[in-house]
């Protein structure tokens, strides 16, 4: 979650917390530097994870999707795509020689879970085919 704010309220009563808008004062359950179980993953945690994985020199990585934050009441096509492309860049930069098997998660659609088919979801599939081109064979890109 790119809007994750260290020190913010992690238990705000919404499906996604740990943002400035959830409060930075009189916080009962603070969002820490490395995250909080009640919140989505931070960029700092993801980058640290990718560094540890890279040190193991894996032959492959299975990425199971759900890159966009779980703020389903605010999700947009552009925001969801930006989140996935941002994570893609982080993975590519950290694991440039690793075969990645990416999967589109249910939160990639906007609205969430609303996949309408290849022609109507080309806003998502086409840019991801380009971003993931190094990992996909020609059949998967079309």
The helix/strand series, from N terminus to C terminus, equals HEHEHH
**How helical, in percent, are the residues?**
25-40%
- Helix-strand makeup class: mainly alpha
User: What's the overall geometry?
Assistant: flat
Number of helices: 4
What is the C-alpha radius of gyration, as a whole number of Å?
A: 16 Å
Strand content: 5-15%
**What's the rounded overall pLDDT mean?**
92
Write structural notes for this entry.
The structure is a single chain. This protein is mostly helical. It is built from 4 helices and 2 strands, in the order αβαβαα. It has helices spanning 43-55, 77-94, 122-131, 138-141; strands at residues 60-63, 99-102. It has a two-stranded parallel ribbon. Helix 2 runs parallel beside helix 3 (122-131). The longest helix is centred in the middle third of the chain and has 18 residues, at 77-94. The radius of gyration is 16 Å and the shape is flat.
